[in-house]
Amino acid sequence: MKYFQFELKKIFNNKKNRILFIILSILIIILVLFSINLKSSNNLESLETTLNENITYTDQTLKSFKSDEGIPADLITDAQKTLNLYTKQSKALKNNNLTEYNKLQIEINNLSLKNGQNKKYIDEQNSYIRNVINKGLSFENSPRAQLRSFGIINEILFPLIFSSLFYLIIALLGGVSVSTEFENEGIKLYKTPLFNDKNIIFYHFASNVFTLSLCYIIALSFYIVGVGFFNGFGAINYPSGIPSIPLVENGIVDILYLIWGFLVIMFIVSFGILLSVFLRKSLLVIGVFSIIFLGYDLLKNQEFMTSLLKYLPMSYFNPIDILTKDYLSSKYGLIIGVFYISALIIVFLLISIRKYRTLSFRKI
Known about the structure:
The chain is an all-alpha fold. The protein is built from 15 helices and no strands.
């Protein structure tokens, strides 16, 4: 335990880490303010604008139908029904009644189906609306523009955390601690009788994972509470509206992201330790991280990469990608991702420990 505490003190006393922690804190505050501001900017005006355009277009279409004797009577009837429904929707929006607005949308969608519109899209939208109504929940303005904290967090904060930018920040905070010891020759201290050289790699790993996980939890808690205080927390069983899995509830999505965050932190720290014991230079370690993560982002959408993506660990960093991407989605995709990344973490640590035991230095 004393080794663990020793490493924690070094992490928090490190000037570079303090600066990064301050930068991350400022970034989280900005994201909270941005998300709160969306409530005022993302109001019902956009829905009203689209609806007014639909009313104008449908009214013009109806007039042209009536002036053309060759148009079947049932088409004219459907156009009139659609116009009436749009008018009722406009009244519902003026009364801020999104439940009534969406109930009317189902009727409009059914008329569109009758006239050969996109069946898959309409069925998904109807299922989403019925799901919210059956649960007795209040509607968000839009399925993928949610404002309450349990919904907006998986649209704004989590996608940012699960990005190359944050992977590199994690690497800077927790992936280069061992290489830093090589640079300042502090690694020699661990070879003295004061330390158990068989366990020091593990303590580096545990202390960095603990620190980053603590920061991760604090950031999520601050975001949820901050946004929830102004915008409302929402319901954890509200459908996420994520394409391909629109009815998966926000609570499930948030928990998946939460758990996966710990997994990604452990992977990056263990990989950073592995690189450190071989490269021994922080700049080289960060360089390798940058090439891997940024290179992956640049190449993952290329056609020649399609058959390789399922073998790359970075493809399993985002749980929602596993559920929605064609090259990953399968019945056991999440389970495969957990075992694959966990196995690599163990392998990286075992190799790092073995390599560290073979290191020798001049006695001090």
